Automatic annotation (TrEMBL):
Pfam families: TACO1_YebC_N (PF20772), Transcrip_reg (PF01709)
InterPro entries: Integrase-like_N, TACO1_YebC-like_2nd/3rd_dom, TACO1_YebC_N, Transcrip_reg_TACO1-like, Transcrip_reg_TACO1-like_dom3, YebC-like
Cellular component annotations (GO), alphabetically ordered: cytosol
GO biological process assignments: regulation of DNA-templated transcription
Domain of life the protein comes from: Bacteria
Lineage, opening ranks: Bacteria, Pseudomonadati, Pseudomonadota, Gammaproteobacteria, Oceanospirillales
One GO molecular-function entry: DNA binding
Compartments where found: Cytoplasm
TACO1/YebC-like N-terminal domain segment(s): 4-73
Domain TACO1/YebC-like second and third: 79-236
Primary location recorded for the protein, binned into one broad class: cytoplasm
Keywords: Cytoplasm, DNA-binding, Transcription, Transcription regulation
Name by which UniProt lists this protein: Probable transcriptional regulatory protein H9854_04100
Entry similarity comment: Belongs to the TACO1 family.
Length: 240
């Protein structure tokens, strides 16, 4: 699982280069999270983690505050989550997560991206069953047993825990994110998470090379250019 996660991180790293896009993504995600669980980070642990992640990615305070104000009812749009699944070049599997105020528009935009890359949208569930929907928390340390004990005492259903090169990485079901994060904070004190995310991690990978690689890059770039797209997950194994 760790290798698949790392492949995903490396292949998508260039997305973070467009700062305004990153700010917009965080703004929408914070808005929806606060709308669903409340605007107080102390009472909404998912929101707390999201805000800390946004600050780590250098999202300005005014972007965060604006999103919280909107969630409090001070005007603004009404976004809802949408997820699309399909098959990309080389028959790799792709999941596209969106936050949208117009599902018909978003579906049309995502479908157009797939069509232009000679790819095909599937039905809900057509590929997601081949991914694990995981909370991923990574931090500097080497006491794997202490971390695991803290998680088990908090009744967290741990999928996997890795200890490599002075970094511990915990994988848990996405529904356990807030509980796992709080259990680690309680055990470790205030610590900085190097990775603090919920992702779809592929169970298997598919090599994508040659002409398919060119089309794959075209698909991912087009999807990431859409304002409504928050995340693109895939199981493509890409050559260096």
């Amino acid at each position: 699982m760790g290798r698949a996660f790392q492949n995903r991180k490396e292949s998508m790293a260039k997305t973070a280069a467009a700062k305004t896009k990153v700010y917009s993504k965080y703004g929408r995600e914070i808005y929806v999270c606060a709308k669903q669980g409340g605007t107080d980070p102390n009472g909404n642990l998912s929101l707390r983690g999201l805000i800390e992640r946004a600050k780590k990615d250098q999202v300005p305070s005014h972007v965060i505050e604006k999103a919280l104000d909107k969630a409090s009812g001070v005007g603004g749009e009404d976004y809802s989550p949408a997820r699309y699944e399909g098959f990309g070049p080389g028959n790799c599997m792709v999941i596209v997560e969106c936050l949208t105020d117009n599902p018909n528009r978003t579906f049309g935009d995502v479908r157009a991206c797939f069509n232009k890359a000679k790819s095909k949208l599937g039905t809900p569930g057509s590929v997601s069953h081949m991914f694990d929907h995981c909370a991923i928390l990574a931090f500097a340390g080497d006491d794997e047993e202490a971390a695991l004990e803290a998680l088990l005492e908090a009744d967290v259903d741990v999928i996997e825990i890795e200890n490599e090169e002075g970094r511990i990485t915990v994988f848990a079901p996405h529904t356990e994110y807030a509980k796992a994060r709080q259990a680690l904070l309680d055990a470790l004190g205030e610590t900085e998470f190097e990775v603090d995310e919920i992702q779809f991690v592929p169970q298997t990978t598919t090599p994508v090379e040659g002409d398919d690689r060119v089309l794959f890059d075209k698909l991912v770039d087009a999807l990431n250019d859409l304002d409504d797209v928050q995340n693109v997950y895939h199981n493509a194994e890409l050559p260096a």
